Amino acid sequence: MSRRAIKAINWSALAEKIPETEKTAFATFKAKSDQHLRRMNMNPEAPAKINWAYYKKNVPIPGLVDKFQKEYESFKVPYPVDKYTSEVEAEEKQVLVKIEEFLKESNQRILTANKEIDRVKSLLPFSEMTMEDFRDAYPEIALNPDKPSIWPHIPEVQPENEKGRPEHH
Predict the structure, then answer these.
(1) pTM of the model
(2) Tens digit of pLDDT for each residue in 67-112?
(3) Could you count the other beta carbons within 10 Å of the beta carbon of residue 30?
(4) What is d(CA 159, CA 169) in angstroms, rounded to the nearest whole number?
C-alpha cells in the first residue's frame, strides 16, 4: 500500500451512497482513516539517507561502520502480501456481469410494459365501451354470455369449481 492509495479515496462520492442509518458509522470510519493518514504522513515516505562517509571518518573502531552499513542496507521491512485485490477484482467482474444481465432484463420488462401501455391507450375509454367491446378487450375477465356465472363471479364460487358438490339444476 502506498500513500497514493489513501489519497485516491473519493469520500464525498462515497458519502452520497451511504444510507442515512449508516452515516454515523461512516463518519467514525472516515475519522479513523484520517487519523491513520495523519500518523502515516508524520513519517517520511523513505528513510533518511545516512552519510556513511562521515561516520567512517569519525568512528575510531575499524569495520564497525561498515558492519552497520551492510546490516542497514540489507534490512527489509516485511510488508504483507496483497492477496485480496485479485479476489475483489474477480468479484467486481461477476457483479458487472450480473448488472449487465439485470439491465437487459429490465430493458425487456420496460419494452413489455410500454407495449401494454400503448395497447391500453389504444382502447376505448371504459365509459364509452359496450359489454361486447369489454369482452373483446379483456376476454379473461369479461363475463361470458355462453357460460353464465353466479355472483360474485369469481372462479372459487362457481359450481364447476366446487368439488364434491353437485351442480344446481
Answers:
(1) 0.43
(2) 999 998 888 888 788 888 889 999 999 999 999 999 999 999 999 9
(3) 14
(4) 11
